[in-house]
Specification:
alpha/beta, 9-stranded mixed beta sheet, 13% strand, 425 residues
Length: 425
């Protein structure tokens, strides 16, 4: 461990560009567990901030007591060797130290608990420890990428998309969504679908989740509003084209039971998961996503709905909590390379005003729409017709609206019968 620290310091002293690389990769003072090495790095940081050269003379001038140590390190450092392995080792060892410290603290809290005491404090300690570990894991950044490196990866993808006729988007099965986003929901994106209470946003999200999973993409539906069993019944109603109320009550004819079993057979092999056990905890949501990504297949998640998520710690306002949740959801989408479909509710003004709502009327936080790559409003007009309005769109036109067919009796949303032209998108 110490050798890697010495090697990195020595290479930085010989080549100032290596010091810039180390900073870009996330190396900080706490990567150095030897006090003298940490002091040298801290001095180098100070010189960098002052705009002075990070070299032997400047360090000796700023901290004369370090002169002999710095000279020895500079002589000892490997010659003509990449600093990347040493940076990796420092970052990995820092993560291990921080993870161990978090687990030790959680263990201390658990060991001090009495049998008759409630478990809330223990749960909070474990959640906080896991949150710290996962946060430091995602912080192991690889640093800036030269455009030539990015193009080496992206050009073959473009060629593959062209040859296969596919885009890198995840097709939702809702034609206007797929066309306006140039092929579907993009990996690493957050797509907010907002609606007033009772309009059918859960039903729309379930339709999209089923459409995506039916094409072989892995989907997990996270629900706070409805238990998994009820969502499964809505899916059976949707796939079997059976009355939702009759599926809920169980009062089905023999013909309807045949449709139910056929729908069950189709859904049984679908790569679709439902999580109703995470109790609105972002940390539990994150753990579940990571587990599925690692052990199965995860391409898209649905959050029903985002304003219900909570974070460990104390927040003085709901707005600040939702802002932090929104940022973390976006970071997770990028890190896991998945698309997020996030449902949201409008504020009271949107409920009172009637007419067409706006994505900017989302309840509790402006961060939800700011972090969104796609912002869609689902609403009903005066004739009970359903519409999708695209208020924000990073991949095409916005401020566009299109009708969508809905039969809520069978929990179904489908493409409206209208002629679509390329100019519309």
């Amino acid at each position: 461990m110490t050798n890697a620290q010495l090697a990195l310091l020595g290479i930085c002293l010989r080549d100032p560009k290596t010091f810039d690389l180390a900073l870009a990769r996330g190396v900080t003072v706490d990567c150095f567990d030897a006090q003298e090495h940490a002091e040298i790095f801290q001095t180098m940081l100070g010189l960098e901030k002052e705009g002075k050269p990070v070299d032997l003379v400047s360090i000796a001038g700023a901290k004369p007591s370090l002169l002999e140590t710095v000279k020895a390190i500079r002589v000892w450092a490997p010659v003509a060797q990449s600093a990347e392995p040493f940076i990796d080792e420092l970052l990995n060892n820092r993560w291990r130290r921080q993870a161990m410290a978090a687990l030790v603290e959680a263990n201390r809290v658990l060991a001090a608990s009495k049998p008759h005491e409630p478990v809330e404090r223990d749960r909070e300690a474990i959640t906080e420890a896991l949150s710290k570990i996962l946060t430091t894991t995602s912080a192991l950044a690889s640093g800036p990428k030269k455009i030539s490196t990015v193009l080496e990866t992206e050009l073959p993808r473009i060629e593959h998309d062209h040859e296969s006729g596919l885009s890198r988007g995840i097709p939702t099965g809702i034609e206007v969504v797929d066309r306006i986003t140039s092929g579907g929901l993009k990996r690493g994106s957050v797509n907010v679908f907002a609606a007033r209470t009772g309009v059918g946003k859960t039903t729309l999200a379930l339709n999209i989740a089923h459409n995506v999973a039916s094409k072989g993409y892995g989907v997990c539906y996270f629900t706070v509003e409805m238990p998994a069993g009820q969502l499964a019944r809505k899916l059976l109603s949707m796939v079997g084209k059976i009355s939702g109320s009759r599926v809920m009550s169980g009062e089905l004819s023999s013909d309807e039971f045949d449709k139910l079993w056929a729908a069950q057979k189709e859904l049984y092999i679908s790569p679709l998961w439902i999580d109703d056990t995470f109790q609105a905890s972002f940390e539990a949501f994150e753990m579940s996503c990571r587990r599925l990504k690692r052990t199965s297949k995860l391409d898209m998640v649905v959050i029903d709905y985002i304003q219900q998520l909570s974070l460990a710690g104390r927040y003085f306002s709901k707005q600040q909590l939702i802002t932090d949740v929104s940022h973390k959801v976006k970071q997770l989408a990028l890190e896991l390379d998945i698309a997020v479909l996030s449902l949201a509710q409008f504020n009271r003004d949107a409920e009172k005003d009637g007419g067409e709502p706006s994505i900017w009327q989302i309840k509790d936080s402006g961060a939800i729409e700011q972090d969104a790559d796609l912002g869609v409003c689902l609403f009903k007009d005066d004739r009970d017709g359903f519409w999708l309005k695209f208020d924000k769109n990073r991949w095409g036109k916005d401020r566009k609206k299109f009708p969508i067919d809905a039969d809520l009796s069978t929990n179904t949303f489908s493409n409206a019968k209208m002629f679509l032209t390329p100019e519309m998108f």
